[in-house]
Amino acid sequence: MDSAVSAPADGTGTIPETPLLDRKRNIAGYRINKMAMALSDQRNREAFKANEEAFLDSYGLTAEEKAAVKSRDWREMVRLGGNLFFILKISAVDPVPITQIGAAQAGMDHTEFLTERLGKKLNG
Amino acid sequence: MAKIIGGLGTSHVPSIGVALDRGLRDTPDWKPFFDGYVPAQQWMRDRRPDVAVVIFNDHGNAFFLDKVPTLAVGCASSYRPIDEGWGPRDVPVFEGAEDFSWHFVDTLVENHFDPLVCREIDVDHGMQVPMELFFGRPEAWPVKVVPVFVNTIQYPIPTPQRMWQLGKVLRAAIESWPTDERFVIMGTGGLSHQLQGSRAGFINRDADQAWIEEIGNDPQKYREMMREDYIRTFGSEGAELIMWLVMRGAMDERVETVHKHYYAPASTTGAGMVVLENRG
Question: Is residue B94 very low, low, confident or very high in pLDDT (cuts 50, 70, 90)?
Fold first, then answer.
């Protein structure tokens, strides 16, 4: 029998270190994800660049959520319920490689992430 | 009646499209990955399908979290490539196999599947990248398409068994379609990767290689794995692999794996493909 999968955001779920977009995280992250989704539209990307604070306010982000977005703290955005597929659009406005976003979540520096997690051979 | 001439499985990593856009195909990071698809592209040229049914997940591009269909089928005459945030890509518009799409929807509902029917919808890298990997970047795509969207992002995602059953119904729809069109079915996503949480960067090369070896001739255990097993084994985003089961479920019990390829990492992902042909 198959059973439902659920892993809480705090990492105490059945699959360690794996924040799935379940009900709890969906509700918690809705504002951040909705704001980030809007960045698919060129006009919104321009509004975000012109006045990030006002843009975030227009989506009702809390102070904690705004701080995470403004500091590009990927780990914190995910902790607050941000889902990678949405918050990735912030990195399109303000370019950061996805491997660096991965490294930030893993708590590793970029080179360590590339070699130890992804198994890349550098300078080879 | 129409005929299934091949089942294809492939990764759909967005960085593959970016690499093509930036002319990085022959750089050391990418060449071994793209070279592995050359025999599959030749197979496609030789076999000349008319229609490609592409099973993929939208990645927060066509659908937001306000409405998330577990299963959606495109029933449009054309599909535009979507702007995911980096600006529009120079990829041709996809012509839809609109009449077959409606027939597929009829067949689904008769068989107790209830899809969202999409008359207008854009398609993201989940569909663009598989098409580019198998057909290159032509001025116009040589096949019509049927996009099939499966939710693999918001929980609950559908079960592996359900994906297999969806494949059976897809086969019934093709085999009752009164044309002599030749169909390929693309199951896309994976292989192992995880983009979120402190396990980000997780890749499981052994499990990926076993999947590529076994999905053709020994798929039973992958049907029986729970969703949780997929996440553990292939990472949270690697659970996309359940969509290959739609393709595999649509094929004969016996198949031959005529082409296969694996390379890691493509960006942060174990990446690869198979080409399967029916053998009865």
Answer: very high
Task: Give pLDDT, residue B69.
Answer: 98
Strand partners, B256: B277
Domain spanning B3-201+215-223+235-257 has what CATH number? Answer: 3.40.830.10
Q: How many residues are present in chain B? A: 280
**Chains A–B, number of C-beta pairs less than 8 Å apart:** 127
Q: What are the 10-residue block averages of pLDDT along chain A, 124 residues in total? A: 42 74 95 97 96 98 98 96 96 92 96 96 67
Residue A103 three-state SS:
helix
Domain ranges of chain A: 23-93, 95-124
Helix axes A63-70, A23-38, angle to 10 degrees: 60
What value, to the nearest 5°, has the Cα angle with vertex B88 and ends B82 and B91? 80
Does residue B232 belong to the interface with chain A, where contact is any CB pair within 8 Å?
yes
DSSP one-letter code for B81: B
- How far apart (Å, rounded) are the C-alpha atoms in residues B51 and B184? 6
Note whether A78 contacts B196, CB cutoff 8 Å: yes
Given a contact cutoff of 8 angstroms between Cβ atoms, the answer to whether A103 and A97 are in contact is no
* β-bridge partners, B123: B81
- The tens digit of pLDDT for each residue in B221-265 reads 999 999 999 999 999 999 999 999 999 999 999 999 999 999 999
Domain ranges within chain B, ordered by starting residue:
3-201+215-223+235-257
Number of helices and strands in chain A (H, E): 9, 0
Interface predicted TM-score of the whole assembly (ipTM), two decimals: 0.94
CA closest to A39 among chain B residues: B85
Asked if CATH classification 1.10.700.10 holds for the domain at A23-93, the reply, yes or no, is yes
B252 and B169 Cβ atoms separated by less than 8 Å:
no
Question: What is the least distance, in Å, from the CA of B182 to any CA of chain A?
Answer: 34
| pLDDT score of B242 | 98
3-class secondary-structure state, position B205: helix
Instruction: Provide the mean pLDDT of chain B.
Output: 97
The 3-state DSSP class for residue B228 equals helix
| H, E, C per residue of B229-255 | HHHHHHCCHHHHHHHHHHHHHHCCCCE
